[in-house]
Amino acid sequence: MLEMRPDCERCGKDLPADAPGAHICSFECTFCEDCTKGPLAGTCPNCGGELQRRPIRATALLKRFPASTERKYKANA
């Protein structure tokens, strides 16, 4: 099951699991659409993998299968 990380690792934008706008690589590195289509040009800066749209988890399933709460964005890192 996907971890469904809550934020963009590059800019910190919130990325709810039940909303569109997140992109992931095969290691589940997570980035917002603006970063993916802009500076990252569809490539994960961590592994060099292709960034693809992350599927949306149905809101009704989030209680039983919650998304991760661990944020990966590190300001001034």
Furnish the topology, listing elements before pairings.
Blueprint: E1 22-24, E2 30-32, H1 33-37, E3 52-53
Antiparallel strand pairs: 1-2, 1-3
Your description of this structure?
This protein has one helix and three strands, in the order E-E-H-E. With 77 residues, the protein is largely without helices or strands. The chain has a single domain, classed as Herpes Virus-1, CATH 3.30.40. Strand 1 and strand 2 form a beta hairpin. The protein is globular and about 35 Å long. The N and C termini lie far apart (29 Å). 22% of the residues are buried. The mean pLDDT is 95.
Write a short abstract of this structure:
The chain has 77 residues and is largely without helices or strands.
Amount of helix: under 10%
CATH architecture: 2-Layer Sandwich
Shape: globular
Counting structural domains, the number is 1
Key words describing this protein structure:
little secondary structure, Herpes Virus-1, three-stranded antiparallel β-sheet, 1 helix, 3 strands, globular
